[in-house]
Amino acid sequence: MRPSQRISGLALICLLLAKFHLAVARDYTRTYLGCYPDPDNKDLTGLTGVSALLGYTVKSWLAVQHSSMTFELCGSICSAGGFPYMGLQVRVECFCGWSYGNHGAPVEADCDMSCEGNSSQICGGDTSSSVFGLQYTSPNLFKRSARTYFSVTNPTSFYRNVTAVEKAQCLLQCINDCQAVLYNQQLSLCHLLKFVLLPTELNTTDGEFYIRC
Ligand SMILES: *[C@@H]1O[C@H](CO)[C@@H](O)[C@H](O)[C@H]1NC(C)=O
Ligand SMILES: *[C@@H]1O[C@H](CO)[C@@H](O)[C@H](O)[C@H]1NC(C)=O
Ligand SMILES: *[C@@H]1O[C@H](CO)[C@@H](O)[C@H](O)[C@H]1NC(C)=O
């Protein structure tokens, strides 16, 4: 079996499951990793270059800050970029990242603030983050999704174009740091995207949008 046929089959399975579920979200499970020091608020820097996503503004220190912050809200923000880690801090802030723990060993007692959106959850401390791992349930499957946009400072750093004569060939090239594709069969043009969101600059670009499950 050629790799493209195999990928095509996998993609189809997820498309059928996703037929009535067009929400832009990846499926994940969450694991608590510890309370890590973050004195300068820069341990998790995954939202670098993102100005706003899912209706939330990203602060200059790379946090989404919101009065309804919960584990679930932060998870939906960070899963949009396929990040393996999220961190919550000072009741209301959410950070995403590819690594964590750059400022030393965890100190559990330092995470003593409940989340503003759910008092049963702990959202870090003054200078510490409650860090979680996000494990994606079906990382190698794709589903058709509604097009959703986000604002970025430099659009070309959030996608790249490759050639693909069929959908499977486009999906097959979505590896390493690729969460979604926008595929235009007529132009054989495959846009590989870093988030399950499209930079607004692609709002006039035609194509079918597929995101990782
Ligand atoms: C609040 O957080 C707890 C612990 O994570 C969870 O079990 C509960 O469902 C959450 N409440 C709401 C309304 O989401
Ligand atoms: C598309 O996005 C640009 C900003 O990148 C905006 O100026 C324009 O109004 C948008 N067009 C539509 C049709 O939404
Ligand atoms: C990628 O394709 C889009 C049109 O879909 C185009 O606007 C953009 O300039 C292309 N980017 C590069 C780097 O070729």
Compact overview of the structure:
This protein is α+β, with helices and mostly antiparallel strands and 213 residues long.
Walkthrough of the structure:
It is found in: Membrane. This is WSC domain-containing protein. It is a single-pass membrane protein. The structure is a single chain. The chain is an alpha+beta fold and 213 residues long. It has two domains: 3-21 and 138-212, Hepatocyte Growth Factor (3-Layer(bba) Sandwich), CATH 3.50.4; 28-136, no CATH class. The protein is 15% helix and 34% strand. The protein contains three helices and 16 strands. The protein has helices at residues 3-18, 71-79, 167-172; strands at residues 28-37, 50-53, 56-57, 64-65, 85-89, 93-97, 114-115, 118-122, 128-136, 142-144, 149-152, 159-163, 180-184, 189-193, 198-199, 208-212. The strands form four sheets. The protein has a five-stranded antiparallel sheet, with helices on one face. A five-stranded antiparallel sheet has the order 10-16-13-14-12. The longest helix is centred in the N-terminal third of the chain and has 16 residues, at 3-18.
